[in-house]
Amino acid sequence: MSENKSKDQNSQPNNDEDFGLPPVSVRPLESPIAKTAASPVPVPVGKGKTETGRSKSGEKEKKERRSNWALWLILLLILLIGFGAYYWGNLGYFNPNPEESDAPVAQSEEPAEATPEPAPVPDPVTEVPAPAVEAVTPVLTEIAERADSPRYFLVVGSFIDDDLARDYSERLNKAGLETFLVHPYGSIHFYRLAVGQYENLDLALEAMDTSQTEYEENLWVLKY
C-alpha cells in the first residue's frame, strides 16, 4: 500500500510547482568517464586501409630511415678518411723526414781537403815514321854540246886538264854545291867549271853578285 501510495503521489500533478506546464521526464546524465569505459571510442582508419597495413607502412618507413642513416654514416667515414689522407700527405710533403730536420748539423772544424783528380792519360798515338829522305849529294854534270836555246853558266875556274877540273869539282860537291863541266868547243881548249846554270843573263849576274864573297876566284858568266 505504501508503494501504491508513493506512485499516486508521484503521478499526481503538483499544481503548485508545474505552473500549468506539461510534465517533463527527467533522466540522470551519464558521466563521460563511465561512458568511455563502457564503450571504447572507435579509432578512425583510412579509407581502404586496415590496422595491419598501417603497421607494415610504419615498419617500411623505419627501414628507410635506417638505410638513410647508414648512407650518411658511410659518406661521413669516406670524408674523414679522405681528409686524413690529405692532411698526412701534406704533412709528409712539407717535412718528409722530421728527424733529420730537427737534428743539429755537425760542422767539422777543418774542411776536408779535396782529393785532386788524376790528370787524364792521353791515348797513345802511334807515330807513323816519316819516309826516309835520302840525302842527294851534288854531282858533276858534264856539258859536251850546245842546247837548242842558249844557257848562262857561272864559271868559277878554267882548266887545261880535265883532271884538275874534276878534282876541284869533287871538293865543291862535298861542300853541297852542284857543278857543271863545260867541255872545250870551237877554238877554246879549256875546261870551264861552273857552279850554276841559268836561263837568262840577269839571273846569272844576280847570282854572281851574291856568291862572289864565297870564292877566292873571280866569277864570270859564260853564254853557251
Question: What features would you highlight for this structure?
Answer:
7 helices, 12% strand, 224 residues, 5 strands, alpha+beta, disordered N terminus
Task: Explain this structure.
The structure is a single chain. Strand 3 and strand 4 form a beta hairpin. This protein has 224 residues and is an alpha+beta fold. It is rod-shaped and about 215 Å long. It contains seven helices and five strands; from the N terminus they run H-H-H-H-H-E-E-H-E-E-H-E. 42% of the residues lie in helices and 12% in strands.
Brief digest:
This protein is α+β, with helices and mostly antiparallel strands. It has helices spanning 2-11, 15-18, 32-38, 51-94, 98-102, 162-174, 201-211, and strands at residues 140-143, 152-159, 179-182, 191-198, 220-223. It has a five-stranded mixed sheet.
How would you sum up the major sheet? Answer: 5 strands, mixed
Structural class: alpha+beta
Helix and strand run: HHHHHEEHEEHE
- What is the typical, i.e. mean, pLDDT? 75
Strand tally, please? 5
Q: For the record, give the distance between the C-alpha atoms at the N and C termini, rounded to a whole number.
A: 218 Å
Taken from the alpha-carbon principal axes, the silhouette is rod-shaped
In order across it, which strands form the biggest sheet? 1-3-4-2-5
User: How large is the count of helical segments?
Assistant: 7
Low-pLDDT regions: 1-11
Helix share, percent: 40-55%
Could you tell me the radius of gyration in angstroms? 79 Å
Report the portion of residues in β strands: 5-15%
